[in-house]
Amino acid sequence: MPKQNGPYKKHIYWLTKDQASQLKAHLLSRRIKLKHARGIVCTPLDVINNITSVAPEVWDDTCGRQGSWYRTSHKNGLYLIISSFELDDFETQKSAVITESDFVLPEPVSPEAIQGLFEDPRLKERMPARWQQVEEMEKRIYLRWAKRLDSPVQDYDQLYRIHTANHANFINPRAFIQTPDGIIPYSIDRSAHLCSCCVELFQVLGSEFRKKLVAPCPGATIFARMKPDRYLLVEKP
């Protein structure tokens, strides 16, 4: 059975239901078990998970509000596959390769830039209505997670603005690295202040960029054991 050796690496694929069934049968013939994510989209990122399928309904579960980005995207209805090894029969369905990066946030994005991203017209065109409907229990959870990651923030509205502005930065970037091959947008704040990094890691947002630098959100650090503030490089194949 293929196992991940060496540096962290995950291969990302988006398959139709029929293709996902074909993959499961192919893996079974090789005595490789395809896991199925339950409740949380980001758990397959854990290094201990060899290959996992995320069915469309998982995006409606624990992180249903965050999953609205998926449900309003062109990937809605597709199955997400996160694998520690390449799938030779599905190269055309490959969406990204994720590896760990040494990138460090140059400096906190200014309040003015956050405000600009939060008010960006392209964000407003893309932002799902469900994203804006935050229940009180969820607000308390995110404040508790922020505190767990050593943040002094005690106002959920402040977190929400950063959460939203961060997604906006992968729609119409203002914080990015300029390279000869194009820009590389990056997460605008530390892990404690982020939410739903899955939508960037799995190419729901920002798939047009050849490279992205994405910091894990608190959920990914808890449920997938990702390292807080350790940026991940997302590259198109």
Task: Write a structural description.
By secondary structure, the protein is an alpha+beta fold. The chain has helices at about 15-30, 70, 110-120, 120-125, 135-150, 155-170, 200, 220-225, and strands at about 10-15, 35, 50-55, 80-85, 95-100, 175-180, 180-185, 210-215, 230-235. It has two domains: about 10-100, no CATH class; about 110-225, no CATH class. Helix 3 crosses helix 6 (about 155-170). It starts with 8 loop residues before the first strand and ends with a strand. The model has no long low-confidence stretch (mean pLDDT about 95).
Summarize the structure in short:
The protein is α+β, with helices and mostly antiparallel strands. The chain is built from 8 helices and 9 strands. It has 2 domains: 9-99, no CATH class; 111-227, no CATH class.
What oligomerization state is this entry in? single chain
Strands in their spatial order, largest beta sheet: 2-3-4-1-5-9-8
In terms of DSSP E residues, the strand content is 15-25%
Number of strands: 9
Rounded to the nearest angstrom, the distance between the terminal CA atoms is: 23 Å
SSE series? EHEEHEEHHHHEEHEHE
* Share of helical residues: 25-40%
Which outline best applies?
A: globular
Sequence-ordered SSE layout with sheet pairings:
Elements lengths: L8 E7 L1 H13 L5 E2 L14 E4 L13 H4 L7 E5 L10 E7 L10 H8 L2 H6 L9 H13 L7 H13 L7 E4 L2 E4 L12 H4 L9 E4 L3 H6 L8 E4 L2
Helix pairs in contact: 3-6
